[in-house]
Amino acid sequence: MATAGRDRPPVGHSDFLVTACGRRIAVRGLRLPPAGRPIRRIALDVGRDQGGEPGVWAALTADEARGLAHLLLAQATASERGTEPGSQV
After folding, report:
1. Nearest Cα to 80, choosing from 65, 67, 72, 70?
2. What does the pLDDT read at residue 26?
């Protein structure tokens, strides 16, 4: 049984990855066309888990997306090194 939105192609450019636990995380450009001033965001959509529990999504500004990317990269680096972000090795 299809759920709402699954049978529609995403609006704008989309990339995704599937995590080791089976969640699909999609990242795409989102443009809302209100009169006179379009709103542009980066949509982050964390899909359902393996048990079918609903996921979450967020619409980020470009600056927010860059901030999130910075935090993710810092955590990834720390994880690879076995340290906490900002700690001295």
Report:
1. 72
2. 93
- Tokens linked to 87: 């700690």
Contact 65, 52 (CB under 8 A): no
Structural contact between residues 65 and 47, judged by C-beta atoms closer than 8 angstroms:
no
Q: How far is residue 81's CA from residue 2's CA, in Å, rounded to a whole number?
A: 42
**Nearest of 4, 46, 2, 3 to residue 24 by alpha carbon:** 46
Question: Per the structure block, which two tokens stand in for 41?
Answer: 């965001």
Cα(34)–Cα(51) distance, integer angstroms: 37
Closest by CA position to 42, among listed 57, 32, 29, 56: 29
Nearest-angstrom CA–CA distance, 45 and 82: 28
Q: Is pLDDT above 50 for 4?
A: no
